[in-house]
């Protein structure tokens, strides 16, 4: 079951809840103040085991995703 991050709009607590994907957007009560005014946060995704050949990587002088170093497949 996925873990989702939420933030309480009243006390600003950030917390996680393990929920099914169908329940992800339902109200998640704040564990600190029990408020129902919470917002689901965008989660970061980790990619494990992905390999790149040297010609697919951007120049070290630039940031990933810059226009001059966009990855071509």
Explain the overall architecture.
This protein is mainly β and 73 residues long. It is built from no helices and three strands. The protein has a domain of 44 residues. Helix content is 0%, strand content 19%. Strand 1 and strand 2 form a beta hairpin.
Give the total of beta strands: 3
The 3D shape can be described as elongated
The strand line-up of the biggest sheet is 2-1-3
Which structural category fits the helices and strands? mainly beta
Residue-averaged pLDDT: 79
Separation, N- and C-terminal Cα atoms: 33 Å
Major β-sheet, in short? Answer: 3 strands, antiparallel
Relative strand content: 15-25%
Number of helices: 0
Our Rg estimate from Cα atoms comes to: 19 Å
Q: Name the poorly predicted regions.
A: none
| Percent range of helical residues | under 10%
The run of helices and strands is EEE
Fold blueprint:
Blueprint: E1 3-8, E2 14-18, E3 38-40
Antiparallel strand pairs: 1-2, 1-3
